[in-house]
């Protein structure tokens, strides 16, 4: 490469990285601002709060809790028992055994026979995937509202009361819950605990201010049954059925709220390989879901805020990991070639400062462990680089149409 051409390439990359940094700072600022505004609304009431509809226990509608389970024998009993302790007067539990090859069905039946006050039904079917299991639960549900969760989730006792109040607004089609990590026993799971607080909870609080949460998490989402039926339930053609369903609701004009007080405690990967498999699947699934609704990317007038949501998802899924890796390689090259190694440090430092500020804000708002802030440094030092490489590889393989499998996480029974 000639000196002149190299200078043009380096200048172009420099300009690109500066533009990316400006966008990234703006993203952090907007998310913090909007999440704080949503937090204030939670304290003092929503802007369009209608007259209270559910004023006492007798007026509370029935909710069907659907628990899809495939080989969840290690955790299914703890998950069901935690549901039976929920503070809500009118609900049922439906466990859908999706053709498990372990003792999931037997253990679920055993718990169902232990109690009589709360209806617990266990349905078994041939293995067809999580989407089909959730649709089976939807068809069997008797409630006006449906709470979908994962077989390894443990919900906070106030979950149903906290979520159901949002449906007093007739424009709300679904409510996303707050997902937190329960198995905080090593560096990988503790960094994920911070990631869930900073990367997921903050974004959902900001999006909730606009009533446009872009992903209702699999571990905790509450829906109007009529809305689920209207959009045809879950589809089978992506590896992120929760993201795909959320986009379908948004495209149909439904508002989606976020309830930070409704918490789903989940077990996250504690080994690096399991973590990479999970993020690989998430990335490809989200790309598949956005591809299904890609028409909205180029129709801002028709799609409205949904156009912005899709571009935001592509920024986080493609541009952000690609730019982080490019920046590290660029500054490493410049450091070796021109003796400017300090540029790599400053690039890392400015991103770390953003992470620490966001982490501190989120830990305070979420009333989380202050020690999680420390993990923001390790998050930027090595964790995010590993995850970004996984995301870039997943993006390339999705673009090439390479086949993939679900890659279910092996549970350790931390609930």
From TrEMBL:
<dbReference type="GO" id="GO:0016757">
    <property type="term" value="F:glycosyltransferase activity"/>
</dbReference>
<dbReference type="Pfam" id="PF13641">
    <property type="entry name" value="Glyco_tranf_2_3"/>
</dbReference>
<keyword id="KW-0808">Transferase</keyword>
<dbReference type="GO" id="GO:0016020">
    <property type="term" value="C:membrane"/>
</dbReference>
<feature type="transmembrane region" description="Helical">
    <location>
        <begin position="372"/>
        <end position="394"/>
    </location>
</feature>
<dbReference type="InterPro" id="IPR029044">
    <property type="entry name" value="Nucleotide-diphossugar_trans"/>
</dbReference>
<feature type="transmembrane region" description="Helical">
    <location>
        <begin position="345"/>
        <end position="365"/>
    </location>
</feature>
<keyword id="KW-0472">Membrane</keyword>
<comment type="similarity">
    <text>Belongs to the glycosyltransferase 2 family.</text>
</comment>
<protein>
    <recommendedName>
        <fullName>Beta-monoglucosyldiacylglycerol synthase</fullName>
        <ecNumber>2.4.1.336</ecNumber>
    </recommendedName>
</protein>
<feature type="transmembrane region" description="Helical">
    <location>
        <begin position="309"/>
        <end position="333"/>
    </location>
</feature>
<keyword id="KW-0460">Magnesium</keyword>
<feature type="transmembrane region" description="Helical">
    <location>
        <begin position="12"/>
        <end position="37"/>
    </location>
</feature>
<keyword id="KW-0812">Transmembrane</keyword>
<keyword id="KW-1133">Transmembrane helix</keyword>
<keyword id="KW-0328">Glycosyltransferase</keyword>
